[in-house]
Amino acid sequence: MKQVEVRLGHAANCSALGNVLNVLLWSQVIAAGAWAAAEAWQTRRRRAEPGGGESRLTDDPSALVRSTGDGPAGPAGPREAHLQITKVCGLPCAHCHVDTGGGHVPAEVLERRLDDLAARGVLRVAFGGGEPLRHPDVARVAEHARGLGLAVGVTTSGVGPDADLSSFDQVNVSLDGLGEGFRATRGYDGADAALERVRAYAAAGRRVGVNLVLDRLLFEGVEETVAAAVLGAVRVLGTR
Prior knowledge:
28% of the residues lie in helices and 26% in strands. It is α/β, with parallel strands linked by helices. It has two domains: 4-67, no CATH class; 80-239, TIM Barrel. The strands form three sheets. A six-stranded parallel β-sheet has the order 8-9-10-11-12-13, with helices on one face. It has a five-stranded antiparallel β-sheet with strand order 4-1-7-6-5, with helices on one face. Helix 2 packs parallel to helix 3 (138-147). The protein is globular and about 55 Å long. Residues 11-31 have low confidence and may be disordered.
């Protein structure tokens, strides 16, 4: 039985490029209608799948639509890839797994990597770091990715510098708790700055998500954190 998988929206996480709203598996009858509707959606990128299926990245609505075909074969390759564009950060987060003693990856190197990812059929990329907004060519590299038909996301600490975000499909802000919870987890007082950036991005018309790393210190305050975040974000992604 032919099935269609619809994943609405796309977002970047520091360790994963997430799917925002729902995963829907349709019966053959409903799938036919869903795929017919997708024919009318603006398609940015498509990829043939084994067994006759196809994956499409659409803009309006923002979705990943995949026909699984009639056979048992899986996807032709990864839908999403993570691109560390810099090791530069400067924040004292104790739980960070990145060696932030390095520098920026040159834009030319990043563009070649994006070319290779696009040639391999990747549909979406997530920029991470370090603090990716500190990369002097972050806007140029994002525009290159978008020119290849890729959906582009980025995750920022919320205290990074201002940057041209017009080529990003979504910006995610790391928000590990509020007040003392944030200070205890991150090692600096940055919750208010992160929340301010979430709301500023949303007010500017950007699609915004929030990344929340859960641990014992933050678990009791997770409801307050989510309540504060959703004033501007379209999605809250929790990891542990």
